Amino acid sequence: MKFDITSLDGKSAGSxxxxxxxxxxxxxxxxxxxxxxxxxxxxxxxxxxVKNRADIWRTGKKMYKQKGTGGARHGSxxxxxxxxxxxxxxxxxxxxxxxxxxxxxxxxxxxxxxxxFRDGGIIVWENATLDAPKTKGLKEQFAxxxxxxxxxxxxxxxxxxxxxxxxxxxxxxxxxxxxxxxxDILRREKLVLTKAAIDALEARxx
Length: 206
Prior knowledge:
By secondary structure, the chain is α/β, with parallel strands linked by helices. It has 2 domains: 2-45 and 99-204, Ribosomal Protein L4, Chain: A (3-Layer(aba) Sandwich), CATH 3.40.1370; 50-90, no CATH class. The chain has helices at residues 20-23, 29-42, 102-118, 135-145, 160-166, 182-187, 195-204; strands at residues 2-6, 12-17, 122-125, 150-153, 172-175, 190-194. Strand 4 (150-153), helix 5 and strand 5 (172-175) form a beta-alpha-beta unit. Helix 2 crosses helix 3 and helix 4 crosses helix 5.
């Protein structure tokens, strides 16, 4: 399918042929949801932890004799029943990541791109370059183009001037094509792809 290419200032710069196998699929919400769950689980630190009864520093002496007190039997003051004791069934340091087949991850990315295309959320730029790293000027250009929330994907490397100018603008992300991912695509209103990014994506999914 043909798609119009624009420049950073909104002027027409020709057209490009988009691959139907990447941008023309019927989006499957289940695949996209599985991929987002996989991404969010993998980036969790998993460093939460509590002290259980083995980690509490307290005497191990039996609190009081077994019989004759009229109360319940207790052998340790470190147990969760007592103030200052260990916590029962608390979180431990662990990884929250789970497996997802490589083919499913690749398919989910194509379905996310197709979903964004179907919603009219894709913009194709000739390139993403600036002469000078000026945030103010870039912000004004984004305002004219109506880009308030966007993920901008460039080729193998992003231009330094453009990256420096864009990094302090809220809700604007700039990534090389290797960093494209389902979660970032869907959490921004617009997906901006350069010609270099599209060429790299088509080569990746051949």
